[in-house]
Design a protein that fits this description.
The structure holds 2 protein chains of 2 kinds.
Chain A (H helix, E strand, L loop, with lengths): L9 E12 L2 E13 L3 E5 L6 H9 L6 E4 L2 E4 L2 E2 L5 H7 L4 E4 L3 H4 L6 H12 L4 H14 L5 H5 L8 H13 L5 E5 L7 H17 L3 E6 L2 H7 L2 E6 L2 E7 L9 H8 L23
Parallel strand pairs in A: 3-9, 3-10, 7-8, 8-9
Antiparallel strand pairs in A: 1-2, 1-4, 1-5, 5-6, 10-11
Helix pairs in contact in A: 4-5, 4-7, 5-7, 7-8
Chain B lengths: L6 E10 L2 E11 L4 E5 L6 H8 L6 E7 L2 E2 L6 H6 E4 L13 H11 L5 H11 L16 H13 L5 E5 L7 H18 L2 E6 L2 H7 L2 E6 L2 E7 H5 L6 H9 L8
Parallel strand pairs in B: 3-8, 3-9, 6-7, 7-8
Antiparallel strand pairs in B: 1-2, 1-4, 4-5, 9-10
Helix pairs in contact in B: 3-4, 4-5, 5-6
The chains are: A alpha/beta, B alpha/beta.
Chain lengths: ~280, ~250
């Protein structure tokens, strides 16, 4: 992989996430391996493919009764599998952070957006309230919010979806993490707003030399946004390939997914449907 | 305006309190046509559909459906001819009613006999195995639920189907199955569709003509061919089209 060339930020080998339910064990992720460098790595898949669980496992956010195991899970040479909860928690937000899908449900509704950003900074850095506020204001500016002073004092219900998502990006980037996991960061947004938000994310990730894991169900978006793509199905990686070569994907699942999208350039009377092969999960 | 349109909307206005969400909207849909309405959130596209379906009674303007001027409150005969499929199959089916209950209710309301045969037929038409008949929604997948919602709309044998983002809550592989089903049903039964969607590729695939809406106004009406040729006239339609093609990195 091209990530190993310049030292990998994150290495996963045989990651598994199992949920022990009363009716049996559900394997959400079954043996996923990859390494992440300073790049934009896309993880695509349909619902239930394990893409979000992968992001959560990296952050140690798998809820009970889920169990994470891996042969190797390292963040910049530090072994995450043996690390205790408190140290994992220190890593979370400071070194690895995550932007969720919907700002409506992810921001605290009874705290102003500015205070939430400042809080994120003060949790990880020793700083006075005043310094945190100044940093938050400049962070709001970095995510291209026009009047940071005014927006700082707004509550989440007073901002639009696109603005809310920019606030979340500001909050996640203010601690200057090395890795950002974005789980469907623009799926709740309109297409035109989506592109603005992606542009901001792209600029910040590139200029700060971060590693980005971009989780999405949208093949077109991942193809145009990421450097490299992992296609997941049923908790397994079907294939990993450069995003620019997604159109020439070899795996029948990837080809099937691409084939069932309606396409303005290739109108068809009937869309292809996907035949799932049980052998893919063997 | 031709008098034999399936749906004819003239100067439709809708306000919720102070916000004027649909402004002087006019369009006509021919019988057997599939007509798309696209726009971003807040453009008023779903509101238009809800007015057509009789779910919203606060509007002004003229709405003719199947040659009849429509009052604010619709009669039973109207609902036999016009049915709607909603976006979220997780929200639109009653969680404590089986597929059988869901399909039997419209038949009971309209006093239609032979429910037994009609329900089996409706399930067959949408490709649901009869063994699913006594299942509850939580025992079905998203795609199966949307098939139930379509069967519920079709069981009354309507001529017009109003589709509000019927596949946007579904995975792309399931979306393809549901879109194929809708296409096949339309051809078999000569149905007229109005499809509301934010996905231009879906509308391009399903519809012959489409209307782009922004801030409650119809910005541009075009044919699917114009859309496929990327040749809309207005800047906004062009912008929407460009945005839907994915991310472009400058430089």
């Amino acid at each position: 992989m091209n990530a190993t060339a310049d030292q990998a930020l994150l290495t996963l080998d045989d990651l598994r996430v199992d949920f022990h339910t009363p009716t049996g064990i559900v394997n959400a992720v079954r043996g996923l391996s990859f390494s992440l460098g300073r790049e934009r790595l896309g993880i695509v898949g349909e619902s239930g493919s394990g893409k979000s669980m992968t992001g959560r496992a990296i952050l140690d956010l798998i809820p009970h009764p889920g169990v994470v195991s891996a042969k190797r899970m390292e963040f910049r040479g530090k072994d995450l599998t043996t690390m205790d909860k408190a140290s994992r928690r220190k890593l979370r937000g400071r070194h690895i952070s995550m932007v969720m899908q919907d700002p409506k449900f992810s921001l605290n509704p009874v705290q102003t957006v500015g205070d939430q950003i400042a809080e994120a900074y003060r949790v990880h850095h020793k700083a006075s309230a005043r310094e945190a506020k100044e940093r938050s204001l400049s962070m709001l500016e970095a995510v291209q919010i026009r009047e940071p002073g005014r927006v700082y004092d707004l509550y989440p219900h007073e901002v639009s979806g696109g603005m809310g998502q920019r606030v979340m990006i500001a909050m996640m980037l203010i601690a200057e993490p090395e890795i950002l996991i974005a789980d469907e960061p623009t799926s709740a947004l309109d297409v035109t707003v989506q592109l603005q938000v992606l542009k901001i994310l792209d600029d910040l990730v590139t200029s700060r030399g971060m590693g980005l894991i971009f989780i999405s169900h949208d093949l077109h978006l991942v193809k145009s946004f990421c450097d490299r793509v992992i296609v997941m199905y049923g908790g397994k990686a079907m294939e990993t390939l450069p995003a620019s070569e997604l159109d020439r994907a070899q795996h029948p699942y990837t080809r099937g997914l691409l084939g069932c999208l309606p396409d303005l350039d290739h109108p068809r009377e009937k869309l292809a449907t996907l035949n799932r092969d049980p052998a893919w999960l063997a | 305006m031709s008098t034999n349109s399936a749906i004819n909307v003239d100067k439709l206005n809708v306000s919720f309190g102070d916000s004027h969400v649909v402004k002087d909207l006019s369009f006509a849909v021919e019988p057997g046509e599939s007509y798309g309405i696209v726009g971003e959130s807040g453009s008023g596209k779903s509101t238009v559909l809800r007015v057509l379906a009789g779910l919203n009674r606060d509007w002004s303007g003229e709405v003719d459906i199947l040659g009849k001027r429509q009052p604010k409150v619709r009669d039973k005969a109207f609902y036999r001819a016009v049915q709607m499929v909603f976006q979220d199959p997780y929200g639109s089916l009653h969680p404590k009613k089986t597929v059988d209950d869901t399909l039997a209710e419209p038949l009971a309301i309209h006093g239609i006999r032979d429910a037994e045969a009609k329900i089996s037929r409706a399930m067959q038409d949408v490709g649901l195995p009869t063994s699913f008949r006594f299942r509850y929604p939580h025992q079905l997948s998203g795609g199966q639920r949307q098939r139930v919602a379509i069967a519920r709309a079709l069981v009354l044998e309507p001529t017009i189907l109003l589709l509000d983002e019927p596949t946007s809550a579904l995975d792309v592989s399931i979306q393809a199955e549901v879109l194929n089903l809708l296409q096949a049903l339309r051809h078999e039964r000569k149905l007229t569709y109005i499809l509301v969607s934010h996905d231009l590729a879906v509308v391009g695939h399903m519809c012959e003509r489409l209307l782009v809406m922004q801030f409650g106004r119809g910005v541009e009406e075009m044919t699917a061919a114009t859309l496929a040729a990327r040749a809309p006239q207005t800047a906004y339609a062009q912008q929407l089209l460009t945005a839907s093609e994915g991310f472009r990195r400058a430089g």
